Inverse folding.
């Protein structure tokens, strides 16, 4: 098991380096002089040149990239924000709890709705429940988050007054954002759970368990679901990673001060270090989530664990 985890951790290193190289290259090629942005358009040319030298902006590309990687790895230094002059890492870390809370509640809603619906749809294939749930899943996948969020604010906040329309401090604040961001994930999890369960319940060992008189609920939950969970867990992990980086619209609609909203504001103000650090931070978070999913595979399927004993 330790070999399995170690191998997965080693595989993360080139992924993170590749992402950092791509992001740094894009920011390097983006038009605009960071020194000029920091000092303002009316700053004297001598001051701009002096700041360029201090920041190392005149160094070759590979030298700048190597320095960026060294500072990020050794000192956890992702640069300083052009607008606030605070460390980028501090800017991101202070916003990350809000994004993590939103993504976690959204995934919790998706799991609570998606897995039971998928199981029932698979065990009652072609029934009315199956047809309705698949249509609802298709609508959930197709519905834009920004439209759904606005409609829910109009209905539940403005007209009914049941929930607040902004913030994230209490449970009532998180209900509307969690449902908004979790709807599409719930639809994807429902469809994956249904297809995976349909494949498993047709296996010979399921028919053998029924022939032995085993209770149908035990067959479904213990024998079928456990063997159908690997693709479902994969989807859940991907959706969680996606929500950590893709909650931009939801955070903007509900005024949640998360990483996504920070990056949008930084793009508008051309605050390149924050954009660069935010993308890198989200990529690292995504790879860590996938690492936990890979480790979870070994607990769900003993055959994976046995390969690394």
């Amino acid at each position: 098991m330790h070999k399995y985890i170690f191998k997965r951790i080693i595989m993360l290193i080139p992924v993170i380096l590749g992402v950092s190289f791509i992001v740094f290259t894009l920011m390097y090629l983006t038009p605009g002089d960071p020194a000029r942005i920091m000092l303002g358009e009316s700053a004297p040319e001598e001051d701009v040149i002096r700041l360029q030298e201090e920041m190392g902006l005149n160094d070759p590309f590979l030298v700048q990239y190597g320095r960026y990687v060294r500072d990020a790895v050794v000192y956890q230094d992702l640069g300083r924000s052009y607008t606030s002059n605070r460390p980028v890492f501090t800017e991101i870390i202070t916003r990350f709890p809000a994004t993590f809370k939103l993504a976690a509640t959204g995934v919790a809603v998706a799991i609570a709705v998606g897995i039971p619906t998928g199981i029932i749809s698979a065990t009652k294939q072609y029934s009315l429940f199956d047809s309705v749930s698949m249509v609802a899943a298709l609508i959930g996948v197709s519905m834009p988050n920004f439209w759904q969020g606005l409609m829910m604010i109009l209905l539940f906040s403005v007209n009914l007054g049941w929930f607040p329309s902004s913030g994230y401090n209490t449970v009532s604040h998180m209900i509307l954002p969690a449902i908004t961001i979790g709807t599409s994930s719930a639809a994807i999890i429902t469809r994956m759970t249904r297809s995976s369960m349909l494949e498993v319940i047709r296996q010979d060992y399921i028919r053998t368990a029924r022939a032995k008189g085993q209770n149908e609920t035990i067959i479904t939950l213990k024998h079928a679901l456990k063997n159908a969970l690997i693709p479902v867990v994969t989807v859940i992990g991907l959706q969680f990673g996606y929500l950590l980086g893709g909650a931009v619209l939801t955070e903007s609609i509900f005024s949640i001060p998360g990483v996504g909203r920070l990056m949008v504001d930084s793009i508008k103000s051309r605050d390149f270090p924050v954009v660069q650090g935010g993308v890198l931070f989200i990529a690292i978070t995504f790879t860590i989530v996938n690492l936990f999913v890979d480790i979870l595979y070994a607990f769900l399927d003993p055959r994976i664990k046995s390969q690394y004993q």
Observations:
- The mean pLDDT is 79.
- The chain has 14 helices and no strands.
- Residues 2-88 form one domain.
- Residues 200 and 224 are 6 Å apart (CA to CA).
